[in-house]
Specification:
Strand order of the largest sheet: 1-2-3-5-4
Low-confidence stretches: 118-139
Structural class: alpha+beta
Largest sheet: 5 strands, mixed, barrel
Helix content: 55-70%
Distance between the termini: 51 Å
Shape: elongated
Length: about 200
């Protein structure tokens, strides 16, 4: 039962980050983790704080993927929080392994269906960009078409950001049609499917 609750919490976190179901999935995650720690019996708040801090660092690592130390530290704190609460190595490994394996499978499935950090990135961009810059941005937006050359402005794993035409132009959410593409790599549009832009390395 506890393993299932932890798994549901991780699944909710993945859905919150990758899909438009941010609010609902976040509530599911919060409820699942709360019930999980209540079910296994928490004696003080420090393990829970370590667990939450670990999750936050891992999420931070998702948005700044080349800053690896945050993800590693987050994983250590998360495991430490769980072990401190449970007090059993085997149960900690069992619960966490089940959650990670199932959530990883879900993330891979969503990535293949075209889901990415687009939902969250749009919210960030809307917050950062002043309203009076809208017309200027639209004026500099290039016409996108297969074969147009650009550059990856973030790592594509497989989703990320890229610019086309002028490098100082607006950034677009793209999806790599190949393997991982590192930041700064020249790319070319392979296919445009609705709002989804598939790219590959420029040969």
């Amino acid at each position: 039962m506890e393993s299932l609750l932890l798994t549901i919490g991780f699944i909710g976190l993945a859905l919150a980050v990758l899909t438009p179901l941010t609010k609902t999935a976040s509530l599911v995650t919060l409820a699942s983790f709360t019930i999980y720690f209540y079910a296994i019996g928490i004696e003080n708040w420090l393990p829970l704080m370590l667990f939450i801090l670990g999750l936050l660092l891992i999420v931070f690592e998702i948005f700044i993927p080349e800053f690896g130390i945050m993800g590693i530290l987050g994983a250590i704190l998360l495991i430490a929080g769980l072990y401190w609460t449970i007090g059993d190595v085997m149960q900690t490994v069992r619960d966490l392994s089940m959650a990670v394996v199932i959530t990883t499978g879900l993330v891979v499935f969503l990535a293949k269906r075209g889901y990415s950090l687009t939902n969250v990135n749009k919210l960030i961009l809307q917050t950062d960009l002043p309203a009076n810059n809208k017309t200027e941005t639209e004026d500099r937006t290039p016409n996108l078409y297969p074969g147009l050359v650009g550059k990856a402005q973030t790592p594509l794993r497989p989703s990320g950001k890229a610019t086309f035409g002028k490098e100082e132009g607006p950034m677009f959410d793209v999806l790599s049609a190949e393997e991982f593409i590192s930041m700064g790599t020249p790319i070319v549009i392979e296919q445009i499917q609705g709002t989804e832009i598939l790219v590959r390395k420029q040969k």
